[in-house]
Amino acid sequence: MKQVIDVVGVRPGKMVPWIDRLLEKWARWSTAQGWHGGGSGVSSLLLTDHIEIDHAVRLRDSPSDLMIDIDQAVSCLPDELRDVVRERYERGGRPEDKARALGISRRTFEYRVGKVHMALQAALDVGPANVDVLRVRWYAKRRGAGEIRFAA
Description:
By secondary structure, the chain is α+β, with helices and mostly antiparallel strands. The chain has helices spanning 17-32, 63-75, 79-90, 95-102, 106-126, and strands at 4-9, 133-140, 144-151.
């Protein structure tokens, strides 16, 4: 049964190490699939090599299921966050250059990477295919409130 789920966080902008490693593996996986650009569609996928991920792999039947969930979640991100995913995980270079390519400061770039991590952690905990709408909301002292809404 699909539903609406709210997840509230309080610290966007902080990187989540296991999500960072997972996104690096996802970027290699999606490139191997011939996809270039965050979140490329999740049907007709091939199995991948064994991928060890401490936290999330235990929640899925196989590593490729996990990659499919990540791909689906990334494809639901707002454009500005999908752009950050592309720059951070699919292109080489220094963080300053990646931020400049997006026309934002390095600090804003890192803050958005943290928002991506928070949103994907929530999406993976719930399972992107299990909900019609997943809202990830937060309040940050200096930046105010915000929300990322994943919709099926």
